[in-house]
Every structure is written in structure tokens, then in C-alpha cells.
């Protein structure tokens, strides 16, 4: 299960969709809604406790950039990928109340639903777009993986059925909290000392270069990351076969090392016997079908 947070850079939208077609993989894109708002209209968004127009990840620079991104979102969905929510302004909601989370979730659906019209292109809005935004987005990942009871209560009441913000000691099946299925990115061994790390590109970036770009060691970081991903995959393929979750961002850190490692892994494993590279929604359906004890609760 490969997912992407933010889902901004249009070139990486194209690259990931091309990869999905080539290796028969479906991805989950946790979209940030400020990225479909052009900077000139930034103040139409206001996060909980924030001033209007503030976003930790910025906005689209132009209407054309935002419209291209919306087109990627819709076409990716048509290709079998999943669009999920990564809120809007990418704030740390660890201390937020349920009402704060609900404000942000409602902003996400409202701003995404009206995006084509707001960008001056109502004629380009696909038929079914607003129903998709209202009813077809079921997954959620909190920025900074900041979880709380207030978050899951808000998710339940706002129509989200699963959360991908957790961290687990290793690959684990989801659990249910407040009526929401909770998935966790696993800790996997990495590097010469085999120290555990969250299976996400940003965490590798921090470990490898303290969050400072070091493209001169890009090939080394790619190899370390690929080895960690493949070892974690092989352990499940030869063992319990619990779905392996890997998280990435639409940023090429350390010269693109982590995207290249992910692409190598997907190319090698996604078409292996008994392997499917799937969205969170597809995984939930598959796990429910295979769980003989209680499919409704996994």
C-alpha cells in the first residue's frame, strides 16, 4: 500500500500515474486542499486558530497550476487510484478539539467541491465531481501524524471511515477506534545498524542527512531505502502477509532517492504472484472479504 501526502507537484502526479499504469498499481493520494486554491485567493481559506490565508504548505501559484492538479485528481480516480484527505493548511492538530478538526474537514470538502468554479472553469468540472468530494473521499491522514480521540470522533462524524495517521511497531492489521479503522505506518529496519524507522520518505530524509539536501549521496540513500523496503516486503511475503504500508511526499528529497527506491520496489513486486499494490480502500475490502471471524470489523 503506497501513499502520497500533499499530492501537489504536477510533474510527480504525472510520474506516479505513469508508474501505476506500468506496474498495475493503485495508490492513495492524501490531498491537501490549499494546493487547489490559487495564491490570489488564499484568504478564502482559514484554518482553526489561524489567520486567513495562512498555510504551512502554501497554495497553487496560479489558476492554471491548480486546474492542472484538479485534472490529475479526477483522472487518477478514474484510473482506480484513491483520493483521500490530508486536510488543507497542514497544521499540527495534536491539541485541536473535535470542533477544530471538523472545521478543517468541512473546509476541505467545501473548497475542493467548488474548486473548478472558484478557479473560473465551471465548464471543465467533471460530471459527478461534487458527489465524489462529498461522498467518495473516505480516508484521512493527519499532518505530522498527529492523532487524538478528538480526531477520530471528528472523522467518524464527518464521514471518514479510515485513518492512515498511525505508527505501528511493524506491519499490522488495522484496529477500530471510535468507529474508524486505524492504519499505522510500520517501523522497519534500515541501514547498516538495522535501526527501526517509520516507513516514510521524510523520516529517511531526516536520518540520512538531518533534513538537509545532500544530492552527492543520493545513490547511497536510494540503495539503503530500497533495501529497507524490499526486506520489509520479503518478510511479509514469506511470512504473515500483512499488507506493507509505505508513505511518501510529492517532494524529491535528497535528489529523488526515495522516489527511485519506491519505483524500484513497485516495479519488482507489484506484479508478483499473490501481490497486489492497492489503495487503502481496496485493502479494506480485501481484508474484510478474507476475515472469516468478523468481516464488518476486521
TrEMBL record:
TM ranges? none
GO annotation terms (biological process): carbohydrate metabolic process
User: Which regions form coiled coils?
Assistant: none
Q: Which Gene3D superfamilies match?
A: Glycoside hydrolase/deacetylase (3.20.20.370)
The record ties this protein, via SUPFAM superfamilies, to:
Glycoside hydrolase/deacetylase (SSF88713)
Q: Can you name this protein?
A: Polysaccharide deacetylase
Species annotation? Rhizobium rhizoryzae
Taxonomic lineage of the native organism: Bacteria, Pseudomonadati, Pseudomonadota, Alphaproteobacteria, Hyphomicrobiales
Amino acid at each position: 500500500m503506497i501513499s502520497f501526502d500533499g499530492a501537489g507537484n504536477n510533474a510527480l502526479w504525472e510520474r506516479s500515474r505513469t508508474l501505476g499504469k506500468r506496474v498495475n498499481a493503485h495508490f492513495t493520494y492524501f490531498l491537501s486542499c490549499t494546493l487547489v486554491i490559487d495564491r490570489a485567493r488564499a484568504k478564502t481559506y482559514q484554518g482553526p486558530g489561524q489567520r486567513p490565508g495562512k498555510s504551512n504548505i502554501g497554495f497553487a501559484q496560479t489558476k492554471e497550476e491548480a486546474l492542472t492538479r484538479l485534472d490529475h485528481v479526477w483522472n487518477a480516480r478514474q484510473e482506480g487510484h484513491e483520493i483521500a484527505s490530508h486536510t488543507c493548511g497542514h497544521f499540527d492538530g495534536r491539541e485541536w478539539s473535535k470542533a477544530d478538526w471538523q472545521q478543517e474537514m468541512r473546509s476541505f470538502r467545501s473548497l475542493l467541491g467548488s474548486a473548478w468554479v472558484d478557479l473560473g472553469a465551471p465548464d471543465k468540472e467533471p460530471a459527478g465531481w461534487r458527489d465524489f468530494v462529498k461522498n467518495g473521499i473516505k480516508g484521512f491522514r493527519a499532518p505530522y501524524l498527529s492523532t487524538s480521540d478528538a480526531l477520530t470522533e471528528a472523522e467518524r462524524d464527518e464521514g471518514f471511515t479510515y485513518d492512515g495517521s498511525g505508527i505501528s511497531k511493524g506491519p499490522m492489521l488495522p484496529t477500530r477506534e471510535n468507529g474508524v479503522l486505524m492504519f499505522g505506518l510500520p517501523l522497519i529496519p534500515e541501514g547498516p545498524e538495522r535501526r527501526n524507522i517509520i516507513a516514510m520518505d521524510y523520516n529517511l530524509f531526516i536520518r540520512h542527512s538531518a533534513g538537509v539536501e545532500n544530492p552527492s549521496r543520493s545513490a547511497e540513500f536510494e540503495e539503503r531505502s530500497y533495501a529497507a523496503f524490499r526486506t520489509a516486503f520479503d518478510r511479509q511475503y514469506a511470512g504473515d502477509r500483512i499488507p506493507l504500508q509505505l508513505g511518501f511526499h510529492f517532494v524529491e528529497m535528497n535528489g529523488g532517492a526515495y522516489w527511485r527506491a519506491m519505483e524500484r520496489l513497485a516495479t519488482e513486486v507489484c506484479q508478483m504472484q499473490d501481490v497486489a499494490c492497492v489503495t487503502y480502500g481496496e485493502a479494506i475490502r480485501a481484508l474484510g472479504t478474507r476475515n472469516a471471524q468478523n468481516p464488518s470489523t476486521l
